[in-house]
């Protein structure tokens, strides 16, 4: 399959996650746990089919970082799923997509990179966009909406941590990295689920079980394999641009399918977050 088509399919699928999550009557912790378990099984089957294996001895130096990032990834999912419960999918998604801005701000301190004028401008404008999404300018200030945005931003922070930790892991392929992170998420989420809500999957009906299988098999297992098998054949800019299909699909679904409200101010703020974050990630060359 063409690399661009692979990433487009995965991004469109990622943008529809909220529909399935909202149809699963389990706690966010349980959904994240079963998502990781099902996805890990799918990726193991995928690696078996293509004859790909990896040795823990070869990557033992990276295991601690991969374990930490996997644990963080699990709680990142929990926070995002909680955001869907308290606010609209579009607002939760836009809050979550503030994560690249967080990465840009933290990178100079962690990797001794200097922020360029373009990066500073993009950070300021994206932050203004976030303020507009939160609702300073007369938009929805209900407590539930603010809590949802808080969960979305919390998920963004956790996802930024995953991105930053992954930058230190350079000798492990994307699929192998994800598989180890899924196992780490499973290990960490087991005690979390048992302590908080316990396992209640036996109470799910056919619809709930179907949705959690789709979330684990399609949205995570298959789409992660598609995504990581495609990025090696694409330039970084192409991946960055195509990745923005995810939030755009999520916003369209939120407004057009779920009939969730979004104000004009929030829409402009969202466009600023996505637009300036994308501008920060791509190089623009001017030819005279």
TrEMBL record:
Q: Which residues form the EamA domain?
A: 5-134, 148-279
Q: Per UniProt, which keywords does this protein have?
A: Membrane, Transmembrane, Transmembrane helix
Asked whether the keyword Transport is assigned, the reply is: no
Family, similarity comment = Belongs to the EamA transporter family.
**Membrane-spanning regions, if any?**
7-25, 31-50, 62-80, 86-111, 120-138, 144-166, 178-199, 205-227, 239-258, 264-282
Protein name, per record: RarD protein
Name one cellular component (GO) term: membrane
């Amino acid at each position: 399959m063409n690399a661009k088509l692979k990433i487009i399919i995965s991004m469109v699928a990622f943008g529809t996650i909220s529909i399935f999550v909202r149809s699963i009557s389990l706690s966010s912790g349980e959904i994240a746990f079963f998502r990781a378990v099902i996805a890990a099984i799918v990726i193991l089957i995928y690696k078996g089919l293509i004859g790909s294996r990896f040795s823990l001895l070869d990557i033992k130096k990276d295991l601690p970082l991969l374990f930490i990032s996997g644990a963080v990834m699990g709680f990142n999912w929990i926070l995002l799923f909680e955001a869907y419960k308290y606010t609209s999918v579009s607002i939760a998604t836009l809050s979550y997509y503030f994560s690249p801005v967080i990465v840009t701000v933290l990178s100079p301190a962690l990797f001794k990179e200097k922020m360029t004028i373009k990066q500073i401008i993009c950070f300021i404008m994206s932050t203004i966009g976030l303020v507009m999404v939160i609702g300073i300018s007369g938009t929805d200030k209900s407590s539930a909406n603010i809590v949802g945005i808080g969960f979305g931003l919390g998920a963004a922070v956790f996802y930024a941590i995953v991105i930053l930790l992954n930058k230190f892991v350079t000798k492990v392929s994307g699929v192998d990295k994800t598989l180890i992170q899924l196992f780490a998420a499973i290990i960490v989420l087991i005690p979390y689920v048992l302590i908080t809500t316990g396992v209640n999957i036996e109470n799910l009906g056919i619809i709930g079980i179907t949705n959690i299988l789709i979330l684990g098999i399609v949205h995570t297992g298959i789409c992660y394999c598609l995504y990581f098998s495609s990025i090696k054949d694409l330039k970084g800019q192409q991946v960055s641009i195509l990745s923005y299909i995810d939030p755009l699909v999520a916003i369209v679904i939120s407004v057009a399918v779920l009939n969730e409200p979004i104000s004009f101010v929030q829409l402009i703020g969202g466009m600023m977050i996505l637009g300036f974050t994308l501008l920060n990630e791509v190089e623009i060359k001017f030819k005279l």
